[in-house]
Amino acid sequence: MIHTAFVSVGVTPTQFDEFDQKIVEALLRNGRLGGKDLSVEVGLSEATVSRRCGIYASTGVFRLCGFIDPWQCGCGHVTLVRLGVTGSPHAAAERIAGVSAVHRLSWAAGSNSLLALVACADTTKLPETLDTIASACPNAHHEATDTVVAIHQGHDGTAKPATMSAQLPLRESPRQRNTDLRLVQLLQRDLRMSYTAIANELGNSITLSGEHTKRIFASGAISAIGVIDMALRGMPLTAVISISFTKDATKHARTLAQKLPSNLVFLTDNPEQVVAEVSFAGEGDVFRWMEQARHLGDVRSIRWDPLHAIYKQTYDWAIPGETLPHGA
């Protein structure tokens, strides 16, 4: 999934009122809510809810993906890699975004640095991944690496810590396991995919597809994550904020995700550091957010870098060692 609209230039903000906010919050709690249940949840008619959801789809202001923690997929090593680029960051990003191990890729303003979220099976695979990135883009060089130990989704107070709560319930036989992998892949891309559409993709009956989907959801291994286009919501400035605490970074990361609006909060293996990605209407909002963050814990230092663009954003975490048949 290529996604650059967080910092679109000259976009017309979509009218996003309190009912839209309720719809988004309801879907983040239960991404499989049907139209009737969703209308009851938000207090609008089913037709109105359907029309608003249609606007989200046509404008790209909101997408709902199935988020599975990379650790549950066997990606034991997840890192935030900073890459320095000589020449055009745009051209470099186009090439690096094609590397499958790179799940998110953004360009920090004020420098020719790209920030990549990279996942691999273990630490021994990271040099191989960095070599792949170097081959794809010879004018990019490795600057720094922070191992990620948790990811918190911070949409409106909802924290989703990236700790393995449930194993993916994949069945044992090769044929059934392949079906489950394909189903997980479909749900990661579109959590609200209908049973009919799933059946068409998997070659199963609608009844079987529904049973398999419910089994995956019942395990707790997959949850809703909303990809919200902040530029279309009138927040064209997205910043990466690095915060160093004197202690208890783990606790502060969860508090930040719950108390302050954010897109994602990354907790690294540095016991003092937290990295947050946040969207704002302007620079004044950045400084207000930082000032609020200072009051949530013992902050040693805090700095921010605006993002020029987010080039890639995918929640389709591959399972190391598992391969799908060509064209699956």
CATH fold-type name of the largest domain: Alpha-Beta Plaits
Rg is 20 Å
Please give the largest β-sheet. Answer: 8 strands, antiparallel, barrel
Low-confidence stretches: 1-10, 155-162
Q: What's the CATH first level of the largest domain?
A: Alpha Beta
Beta-strand residue percentage: 25-35%
- Terminal Cα span: 17 Å
Number of domains: 3
Q: Give the mean pLDDT.
A: 82
Structural class: alpha+beta
Question: What is the helix content?
Answer: 25-40%
| Strands in their spatial order, largest beta sheet | 2-4-3-10-7-9-8-5
What does the overall shape look like? globular
Number of E-type strands: 10
Q: What are the secondary-structure elements, in order, as H or E?
A: HHHEEHEEHEHHHEEHEEHE
Proper CATH architecture of the largest domain:
2-Layer Sandwich
Number of helices: 10
Structure explained in plain terms:
The structure is a single chain. This protein has 328 residues and is α+β, with helices and mostly antiparallel strands. It has 3 domains: 17-60, Winged helix-like DNA-binding domain superfamily/Winged helix DNA-binding domain (Arc Repressor Mutant, subunit A); 71-160 and 229-313, Alpha-Beta Plaits (2-Layer Sandwich), CATH 3.30.70; 169-218, Orthogonal Bundle (Arc Repressor Mutant, subunit A). 34% of the residues lie in helices and 27% in strands. It has helices spanning 18-29, 35-42, 46-59, 89-96, 126-136, 174-189, 195-202, 206-218, 249-259, 283-294, and strands at 62-67, 77-85, 102-108, 113-120, 140-153, 223-228, 237-245, 264-268, 273-280, 299-313. Helix 2 packs across helix 3 and helix 7 (195-202) crosses helix 8. The longest helix is centred in the middle third of the chain and has 16 residues, at 174-189. The chain is globular and about 55 Å long.
